[in-house]
UniProtKB/TrEMBL annotation:
Keywords: Calcium, Cytoplasmic vesicle, Disulfide bond, EGF-like domain, Glycoprotein, Golgi apparatus, Membrane, Protein transport, Repeat, Signal, Transmembrane, Transmembrane helix, Transport. This is EGF-like calcium-binding domain-containing protein. It is found in: Cytoplasmic vesicle, Clathrin-coated vesicle membrane; Golgi apparatus membrane; Prevacuolar compartment membrane. The keyword Transport applies. Its main location: membrane. It comes from Musa acuminata subsp. malaccensis. The keyword Transmembrane helix applies. GO terms for cellular component: clathrin-coated vesicle membrane; cytoplasmic side of endoplasmic reticulum membrane; Golgi membrane; Golgi-associated vesicle membrane; lumenal side of endoplasmic reticulum membrane; lysosomal membrane. One of its GO terms (biological process) is membrane protein proteolysis. It is a single-pass type I membrane protein.
C-alpha cells in the first residue's frame, strides 16, 4: 500500500513538473487603493484568495485594523475580546493579519466571525504574490469553508509593513478594494469554462463540485438558452510516463495505452473503481456536451451531469456505462453519436477529444494553466473565490459590459445589500419612503428613482426632486404644504417649489404667512381697517365704501349702482333693435320665396334660359 502511494506521488509530481515547464500558473489579482494617509496614497496589487466571495465587478471601502493580539488570526478574536463589527454609519473594517501558523481559510473565518468585512493577509516573506487556496485535507471542519463570505486578499510583505507602521502611528488607513478590472468585460456575451471531474468520491472537493452544478444549473441554463453566455465544460487528464506504460498501475488508471489517465478514486488499485473508469466517464461527458452543442442544446450537459450524479453514484456501484446510457436516453440525446465520439478506449491511438482537452489545460494569453480542480474560467480568467451559486453568478455578471447584464444579474440573490446600512450614503426621503439607493451585484448605486411614473432628478447623493407633470402628487413634489383652519396651501408648482401668494420662504421646508397689515403691502387706504389672516388678510373701508381687493382700493357704493342700471338699459335697447332686425329679415325671406314659386309656375308654360341648360347636362350624363 505504502509503495503504491509513493508510486502515485512520483507519477503525479513528475507529470505536474512537466506541465509547469511549459505553462504558467497565473495569480489572479485585484487592486487595493489607499486613500489615506497621504504618505501611503496609491494603488497596490493584491492576490484574490480562492475562498470567500470576491466582489467581482464591485468595490468596497473600509478602514484597516491590525489587531494588538492574535496577529496571525489563528484563534477566534472573541478569546481576546476584540470585535470589528461596524457600527451604524461607520466604515467597515478590513482586518490585517500576518501569514503563518494556520490555514488562510482559518484566518478568514476568524476575521469574519469578529465582524470584519474583508481580510488582508500580509505575506511573511518578500516574494511575488501567491494564490491563497483552501486546505487539501479532508477534515471534518470543512463546512466552515463554505460559510466564508468575506473577500480575502494577500498583500506583499513590504506593503503590509507600511500599513502596520501607519496604523501604529495612529493614522487612519482608509482603503478601497477594487475588483472591477479583475475580470475583462468587453461585450454582451460571457464565455466561461468549468474544469471538473465525474469522480464523485474525492471528499469535500468533489462534493462541492456536484453541489455547485446542482445549484447553478438553473441560472446556467437560463443564461445559455438566451444566448448571454457560451459555456464549455472541460476535464483534466494526465498521461502515463513512458517508463511506466506497461505497469499494472498505468493499465488500471489509463485508457488508449497510457495516453489519458486519472487517479484511482479510492487510491487503491485493488478495489472499487479504477482511474480508467473515471477517464471513460469524463470522456462520455465531453462527448455528450459536443453532441448536445451540435444539436443546439448545450445546456443539456447540466441536466446530464446532475442526473448522472444522482442516479449513478459510485457508492451504489452504478458508476457504469449502462447507467450512463440510461440517463442519456432519458434526455433524448443521440447515444450513437456519443459512442462514435468516444471511440475505442483500448485502441493504441490518440483520442481527438481528450487530446484537445489536454491541450486546453495549458494556459494561453492571460489565462494560466489549469491545475486546481475544480476551476472556473470566466472570460479567459480563472475565477477565485468559493464555488457557490451567488458568488459565481456575481463573477459571471461582472463579465458583461456594463448595462448589458441580463435580468438575472439584478436579482435579489446576488445584490450586495449595501443600501441596508445608512441607506448606502444616498439621498432619501424617509417620510415618503423614497430612496435613491439601488442595490446591484456591482455594489450600490445612488440614482434618483422613478416613483409611480414620476421621475426624480438630481445627483442621487444629496438631492433628488420629482420632475414633470404629476410631480405634486408624490410627497407634494418635495415642497412645503400646510393645512390650517380648514384651508390648505401648497408650494408645489410646475417649475419647482414656490411659496403661494401671501407666504414667503424657500418653498421647500418653509413658507411663512406674510403679515400684509404690518408690512404695509396692502390695505393702506385712509380709514381702512386691516386684519391679517393665515395666507391672506381682511380689509374693510369706511361707511358706504367697498374694498376692491384687486386694486387695493375703496370705492363708493353709489356710482357702482348707476353703472348697473345703465348697463341694463343697454341690454334692453339691444333686444329691441334685434327684434326689429329679425322682423325685417323675415319679411324679405317671404318675398323671395314667393318670387321663386311664381317662376316655377311660369316655367311650366314657357322654357326659361337656365332651365334648358340644366336639361342638356342631364341628357349628356345619361
Ligand atoms: C455553516 O452554515 C450552515 C448553514 O447556514 C450551518 O448549518 C453551519 O452550522 C455553519 N457552519 C459553521 C461552522 O458555522
Ligand atoms: C458549441 O457550438 C457553438 C456554436 O454552434 C460553437 O461556436 C462552439 O465552438 C461549440 N463548442 C464546442 C466545444 O464544440
Ligand atoms: C418602503 O418601501 C419599500 C418598498 O418600496 C417597502 O418594502 C417598505 O415596507 C416601505 N417602508 C415603509 C416604512 O413604508
Amino acid at each position: 500500500m505504502g509503495g503504491k502511494l509513493v508510486w502515485l506521488r512520483v507519477v503525479w509530481v513528475s507529470v505536474l513538473l512537466w506541465g509547469s515547464c511549459w505553462g504558467k500558473f497565473v495569480v489572479e489579482k485585484n487592486s487595493l487603493k489607499v486613500t489615506s494617509p497621504d504618505s501611503l496614497k496609491g494603488i497596490y496589487e493584491c492576490a484574490i484568495g480562492n475562498f470567500g466571495v470576491p466582489q467581482y465587478g464591485g468595490t468596497m471601502v473600509g478602514i484597516v485594523a491590525y489587531p494588538k493580539a492574535n496577529r496571525k488570526g489563528c484563534q477566534g478574536f472573541d478569546n481576546f475580546d476584540i470585535s470589528y463589527k461596524s457600527k451604524p454609519g461607520g466604515f467597515p473594517t478590513f482586518l490585517l493579519v500576518d501569514r503563518g501558523d494556520c490555514y488562510f481559510t482559518a484566518k478568514a473565518w476568524n476575521a469574519q466571525n469578529a465582524g470584519a468585512a474583508a481580510v488582508l493577509v500580509a505575506d511573511n516573506k518578500a516574494e511575488p504574490l501567491i494564490t491563497m487556496d483552501t486546505p487539501e485535507e479532508d477534515d471534518n471542519k470543512a463546512d466552515y469553508l463554505q460559510n466564508i463570505t468575506i473577500p480575502s486578499a494577500l498583500i506583499s510583505k513590504s506593503f503590509g509593513d507600511s500599513l502596520k507602521k501607519a496604523i501604529e502611528n495612529g493614522d487612519m488607513v482608509s482603503v478601497n478594494l477594487d475588483w472591477r478590472e479583475s475580470l475583462p468585460h468587453p461585450d454582451d456575451r460571457v464565455e466561461y469554462e468549468f474544469w471538473t471531474n465525474s469522480n464523485d468520491e474525492c471528499g469535500p472537493k468533489c462534493d462541492s463540485q456536484i453541489q455547485f452544478v446542482k445549484n447553478f444549473k438553473g441560472a446556467a441554463q437560463i443564461l445559455e438558452r438566451k444566448g448571454y453566455t457560451q459555456f464549455t465544460p472541460h476535464y483534466i487528464t494526465w498521461y502515463c510516463p513512458e517508463a511506466f506504460l506497461l505497469s499494472k498501475q498505468c493499465k488500471s488508471q489509463c485508457i488508449n495505452h497510457g495516453r489519458y489517465c486519472a487517479p484511482d478514486p479510492e487510491q487503491d488499485f485493488s478495489k472499487g473503481y479504477d482511474g480508467k473508469d473515471v477517464v471513460v466517464q469524463n470522456l462520455r461527458q465531453v462527448c455528450l456536451f459536443k453532441v448536445a452543442n451540435e444539436s443546439g442544446k448545450p445546456w443539456l450537459w447540466w441536466d446530464y451531469v446532475t442526473d448522472f450524479a444522482i442516479r449513478c453514484p459510485m457508492s451504489d456501484k452504478k458508476y457504469t456505462k449502462e447507467c450512463a446510457e440510461e440517463v442519456i436516453k432519458s434526455l433524448g440525446i443521440d447515444l450513437k453519436k456519443i459512442n462514435q465520439c468516444m471511440g475505442d478506449p483500448d485502441a493504441d491511438e490518440e483520442n481527438a477529444v481528450l487530446k484537445a482537452e489536454q491541450d486546453a489545460q495549458i494556459g494561453k494569453d492571460s489565462r494560466g494553466d489549469v491545475t486546481i480542480l475544480p476551476t472556473l474560467v470566466i472570460n479567459n480568467r480563472q475565477y477565485r473565490g468559493k464555488l457557490d451559486k451567488a458568488a459565481v453568478l456575481k463573477a459571471i455578471c461582472a463579465g458583461f459590459q456594463e448595462t448589458t447584464e441580463p435580468a438575472v444579474c439584478l436579482s435579489e440573490d446576488i445584490e450586495t445589500n449595501e443600501c441596508r446600512e445608512n441607506n448606502g450614503g444616498c439621498w432619501q426621503d424617509k417620510a415618503a419612503n423614497i430612496t435613491a439607493c439601488k442595490d446591484t451585484f456591482r455594489g450600490r448605486i445612488c440614482e434618483c428613482p422613478v416613483v409611480e411614473g414620476v421621475k426624480f432628478v438630481g445627483d442621487g447623493y444629496t438631492h433628488c426632486e420629482a420632475s414633470g407633470s404629476g410631480r405634486c402628487e408624490i410627497n407634494n413634489g418635495g415642497c412645503w404644504k400646510k393645512s390650517h383652519e380648514g384651508k390648505t396651501y401648497s408650494a408645489c408648482v410646475d417649475e419647482g417649489c414656490k411659496c403661494p401668494l401671501g407666504f414667503k420662504g424657500d418653498g421647500v421646508d418653509k413658507c411663512e404667512d406674510v403679515d400684509e397689515c404690518k408690512e404695509k403691502t396692502a390695505c393702506q387706504c385712509s380709514g381702512c381697517k386691516c386684519k391679517n389672516t393665515w395666507g391672506s388678510y381682511e380689509c374693510s373701508c369706511g361707511d358706504d365704501l367697498l374694498y376692491i381687493k384687486e386694486h387695493d382700493t375703496c370705492i363708493s357704493k353709489k356710482p357702482s349702482t348707476e353703472v348697473g342700471w345703465s348697463f341694463l338699459w343697454v341690454i334692453f335697447f339691444g333686444l329691441v333693435i334685434a327684434g326689429v332686425g329679425a322682423y325685417a329679415i323675415y319679411k324679405y325671406r317671404i318675398r323671395s320665396y314667393m318670387d321663386s314659386e311664381i317662376r316655377a309656375i311660369m316655367a311650366q308654360y314657357m322654357p326659361l334660359d337656365n332651365q334648358e341648360a340644366q336639361n342638356h347636362i342631364h341628357h349628356g350624363e345619361i
